[in-house]
Write a structure and sequence with these properties.
- This is DUF3467 domain-containing protein.
- This protein has 116 residues and is of the alpha+beta class.
- It folds into two domains: 44 residues, no CATH class; 72 residues, no CATH class.
- Helix content is 29%, strand content 25%.
- The longest helix has 22 residues.
- The N and C termini lie far apart (41 Å).
Length: 116
């Protein structure tokens, strides 16, 4: 059976409900219902990646993720198998950046500062 966790959506998050209930007066309960997002994880796949690079144009930001499979060879030549390409709008990329900053700050507060 697929897990479908629910979370409160951030303002402007993709998938946030915009139905008529949120436009009607109804107090906090109506607003809380409108801000719920149900994540369907039925087809979710996980991948390990240890390499990331990116590029951008005026209309999109592109992130490439892959695996460096030459960990045991010299540094003169690396072989990276790119496995995933994520293409998003600059606005979505900015939200991803903000989320990553928060996640790294939380990680460092728990486990100590990261080098780099």
């Amino acid at each position: 059976m697929a897990r479908t966790p629910e979370a409160t959506a951030a303002p402007g998050a993709a998938g946030a409900s915009g139905d008529a209930r949120s436009a009607q007066p109804g107090g906090a309960a109506a607003t809380a219902r409108a801000n719920q997002v149900k994540f369907d994880t039925t087809d979710l796949k996980s991948s390990y990646c240890n390499v990331c690079n990116g590029s951008s144009t005026r209309e999109e930001v592109v992130l490439n993720f892959g695996v460096n499979s030459t960990w045991d060879l010299g540094r003169d030549r690396l072989e990276v198998q790119l496995q995933h390409r994520i293409v998003m709008s600059p606005h979505a990329a900015k939200r991803v950046r903000d989320m990553m900053v928060r996640l790294i700050e939380e990680h460092e507060s728990r486990y100590g500062k990261l080098d780099g």
